[in-house]
């Protein structure tokens, strides 16, 4: 960069490098997505294509920024976890957040037509935040919180929209009906009034989506007539599983290393 008398203005920039030896989590949320989903007539309470589009965008982000070791998404949000040792963008929070947010948003527009026939009415927007978690327990508790949030919201929304769409209640009356209810009450409403076992609903709706890297095998032929060889390469795997219980982590002891 050429020197000039104006270069001193760089000194006004804040040093926002993330603390070393911490997991860096970048969480993206859709901005005003209630209005966005209404404008594009998303199916309530869950639009499968909209969720698949979110997952596709997250997968592309994982492939672009390979220091990411894990991502968890539900509804209009996604949390991306960088490995502790990452030095990407010198661990600058602003760089990490803006690069992931812009790549996710541009991917959402780029892949929209693969999931929806209708054109976008207006551009989607995603905001972001950076949070540091110093221990594996802190990180696991954060991800558990997000999955618990997925379950709580989906159970409520499933009941709410069944009461509106099938029982014919107004949104206001459906909200009053569910006010003060606990999970058991909502499960009973679904089963007794709509013959729905909540546990039989798609796992993507109930548990959200986990993305992580796993090794895969690929048969490769060296040259014409030669025998094939097996090469191992990493690929992004998509799961809809429980990450609150220890089973997920115990089966992947090296995931957070």
Automatic annotation (TrEMBL):
It comes from the Eukaryota. Mg(2+) 1 binds at residues 29-30, 76. It catalyses: a 5'-end ribonucleotide-tRNA(His) + GTP + ATP + H2O = a 5'-end phospho-guanosine-ribonucleotide-tRNA(His) + AMP + 2 diphosphate + H(+). InterPro entries: Thg1_C_dom, tRNAHis_GuaTrfase_cat, tRNAHis_GuaTrfase_Thg1, tRNAHis_GuaTrfase_Thg1_sf. Keywords: GTP-binding, Magnesium, Metal-binding, Nucleotide-binding, Nucleotidyltransferase, Transferase, tRNA processing. Residues 138-245 form the Thg1 C-terminal domain. GO terms for molecular function: GTP binding; magnesium ion binding; tRNA guanylyltransferase activity. Transmembrane segments: none annotated. Its cofactor is Mg(2+). Binds 2 magnesium ions per subunit. Pfam families: Thg1 (PF04446), Thg1C (PF14413). Its EC number is 2.7.7.79. GTP binds at residues 29-34, 75-76. Residues 6-134 form the tRNAHis guanylyltransferase catalytic domain. It is an enzyme of class 2 (transferase). The keyword Lyase does not apply. Mg(2+) 2 binds at residues 29, 76. The keyword rRNA-binding does not apply. GO terms for biological process: tRNA modification. Adds a GMP to the 5'-end of tRNA(His) after transcription and RNase P cleavage. This step is essential for proper recognition of the tRNA and for the fidelity of protein synthesis. Also functions as a guanyl-nucleotide exchange factor/GEF for the MFN1 and MFN2 mitofusins thereby regulating mitochondrial fusion. By regulating both mitochondrial dynamics and bioenergetic function, it contributes to cell survival following oxidative stress. PANTHER family: TRNA(HIS) GUANYLYLTRANSFERASE-RELATED. Belongs to the tRNA(His) guanylyltransferase family. Homotetramer. Interacts with MFN1 and MFN2; functions as a guanyl-nucleotide exchange factor/GEF for MFN2 and also probably MFN1. This is tRNA(His) guanylyltransferase. It comes from Paramuricea clavata.
């Amino acid at each position: 960069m050429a020197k000039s008398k104006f270069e001193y203005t760089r000194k006004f920039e804040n040093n926002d490098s993330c603390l070393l030896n911490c997991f860096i989590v970048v969480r993206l949320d859709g901005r005003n997505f209630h209005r966005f989903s209404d404008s594009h007539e998303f199916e309530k309470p869950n639009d499968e294509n909209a969720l698949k589009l979110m997952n596709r965008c997250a997968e592309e982000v994982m492939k672009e920024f390979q220091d990411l070791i894990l991502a968890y998404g539900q509804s209009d949000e996604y949390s991306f976890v960088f490995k502790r040792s990452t030095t990407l963008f010198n661990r600058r929070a602003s760089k990490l957040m803006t690069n992931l947010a812009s790549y996710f948003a541009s991917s959402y527009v780029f892949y929209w037509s693969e999931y929806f026939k209708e054109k976008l009415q207006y551009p989607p927007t995603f905001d972001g935040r950076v949070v540091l978690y110093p221990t594996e327990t802190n990180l696991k508790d954060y991800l558990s919180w997000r999955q618990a949030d997925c379950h709580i919201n989906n159970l409520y929304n499933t009941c709410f929209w069944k009461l509106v769409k099938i029982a014919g209640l107004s949104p206001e009356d459906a909200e009053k009906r569910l006010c003060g209810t606990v999970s058991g009450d909502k499960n009973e409403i679904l089963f007794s009034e709509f013959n729905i076992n909540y546990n039989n609903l798609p796992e993507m709706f109930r548990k959200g989506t986990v993305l992580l890297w796993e090794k895969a095998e690929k048969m490769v032929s060296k040259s014409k007539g030669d025998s094939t060889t097996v090469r191992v390469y990493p690929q992004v795997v998509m799961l809809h599983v429980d990450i609150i219980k220890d089973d997920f982590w115990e089966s992947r002891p090296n995931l957070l290393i």
